[in-house]
Amino acid sequence: MKIVISETNTALGHKAGKHTAELIRLAIGEKGYANVILATGTSQFETLSQLIKEDGIDWAKVTMFHLDEYIGMKITHPASFRKYLKERFLSIVPVLKNVFLINGDEDAEIETVRLDDLITGHPVDVALVGVGENGHLAFNDPPADFDTKKPYLIVNLDEQCRIQQMNEGWFATLEEVPKQAISMSVKQIMKSKHIICSVPDERKALAVKNSLENEISNMFPASILQSHPDCTFYLDKASASLLSKNVI
């Protein structure tokens, strides 16, 4: 695991986006295609912004999955992660080889089976992830299920997670925030060959400290990334502010 600390969120995203592009180009060069997972939320704004500026990526050879989506949410809702990806990524890059979005409108159990079958046939080269204020990885809130081998799960969102979504401006009130989502499982994320974890902002500082300094525990879900063979944490000064010097 590597830790890269930048002065600002913008610089963080610049480095993370460039690294992601390099890994995608490498996968395409080695085997003719790349399978990627894209994260959403405010933590990914700058990383995705840089990624779409990168030259030399043959997007027609790239298959995209994403991490999670609220259950029962229409794609027209401002907080929909499908809407997020369509507006901030899919409408800007050229046509991809495949795009597999999570449909939260349909029967959730059936949707997880569909997604399980799809991602099982597409080993992931690069996964973009973040860390929630409660330490979650995707929507795997603590205590996260580290054992299930199912690629996609129906999960309950804890109050801290839901408050974060409201405070970030996606919802006007806590009551509006859904209580369930479809999320990629921890084991499935960990199968990715490379993981780029972008975590800006001071409000994430404690979660970053817990993820990097505590022993691996499902009470700090993102701590599992310590055990990944090729994971890079991209932080800014604010999100890294509570880290001990021996970790940096």
How does this model look, in words?
- There is one protein chain.
- The protein has 248 residues and is an alpha/beta fold.
- The protein has one domain (2-236): Rossmann fold (3-Layer(aba) Sandwich), CATH 3.40.50.1360.
- Helix content is 31%, strand content 19%.
- The protein has helices spanning 9-31, 45-51, 81-90, 108-120, 159-167, 186-190, 205-213; strands spanning 2-6, 34-38, 62-66, 68-70, 98-100, 126-129, 152-156, 180-184, 194-199, 231-236.
- The chain has a seven-stranded parallel beta sheet, sandwiched between helices. Strands 4-8-7 form a three-stranded antiparallel beta sheet.
- Helix 2 (45-51) links the parallel strand 2 and strand 3.
- The termini are close together.
- The mean pLDDT is 96.
What is the strand and helix layout of this fold?
Layout: E1 2-6, H1 9-31, E2 34-38, H2 45-51, E3 62-66, E4 68-70, H3 81-90, E5 98-100, H4 108-120, E6 126-129, E7 152-156, H5 159-167, E8 180-184, H6 186-190, E9 194-199, H7 205-213, E10 231-236
Parallel strand pairs: 1-10, 2-3, 2-6, 3-5, 6-9, 9-10
Antiparallel strand pairs: 4-8, 7-8
Would you kindly provide a brief summary of this structure?
Helices cover 31% and strands 19% of the residues. The chain contains seven helices and ten strands.
